[in-house]
Amino acid sequence: MLNILGKASSINVRKVLWACVELRLPFEREDWGSGFRSTAEPGFLALNPNAMVPVIQDGDFVLWESNTIIRYLASQYGGDALYPAAPKLRARVNQWMDWQATDLNRSWSYAFMALARQSAAHRDAAATEASCQAWAHCMGILEQRLSQTGAYVAGEAFSLADIPVGLSVNRWFLTPFDKPRLPAVAAYYDRLAEREGYRQHGRNGTV
């Protein structure tokens, strides 16, 4: 039985939970992280020295880093439709997963902490505005891509890339600030909501 360590509200844990639904993969989950068991405990650090969730235990195999975890799960448990073996198709999926983890995540980090989390350490109005503008720029890139495919980020079919990107889109819509109109992103948001995994772990009121 796959064991997932991490609280269900974490955006990175939710990637793994959503992937498990897509793969019809049974799992057990333990609450770790802020508000639950501390990831600074020696037992957790032995699994992930970065003290971050999620971590999976698949038998005696331990793995951390959320995008790596969902790639592994798709490769290990028959997820070819989500993560195709053909090099060019797989590279396209990886491209958008990596873009989400780098450019997109960096753009919204400050604005999200300031506006959604109301963090006391993120009260710089200029930094918030700059982050909102960077975020809108990245979402414009996503709008352009979705306008091209008419469906999902890697192409016509839902793929592993839509899990991290979809969770970021949910965060975009639930963070309160004035946003540009992005009709292709809005249609994508609704399209993802047709998937059970997204309803449970993505578009579920959690940012």
Describe the structure using short key phrases.
alpha+beta, 207 residues
Précis, in short:
With 207 residues, the protein is α+β, with helices and mostly antiparallel strands.
Description:
- The protein is an alpha+beta fold and 207 residues long.
- Helices cover 54% and strands 8% of the residues.
- It is built from eight helices and four strands.
- A four-stranded mixed sheet has the order 2-1-3-4, covered by helices on one side.
- Helix 1 runs parallel beside helix 3 (66-76) and helix 4 runs parallel beside helix 6 (162-174).
- It is globular and about 45 Å long.
- The two termini are 28 Å apart.
- The relative contact order is 0.14.
- The mean pLDDT is 96.
Helix content: 40-55%
Q: What portion of residues belong to β-strands?
A: 5-15%
N-to-C SSE string, H for helix and E for strand: EHEHEEHHHHHH
**Low-pLDDT windows of residues:** none
Strand order, main sheet: write it out. Answer: 2-1-3-4
Topology:
Layout: E1 2-5, H1 11-23, E2 27-30, H2 42-45, E3 55-58, E4 61-64, H3 66-76, H4 87-116, H5 125-149, H6 162-174, H7 183-192, H8 196-201
Parallel strand pairs: 1-2
Antiparallel strand pairs: 1-3, 3-4
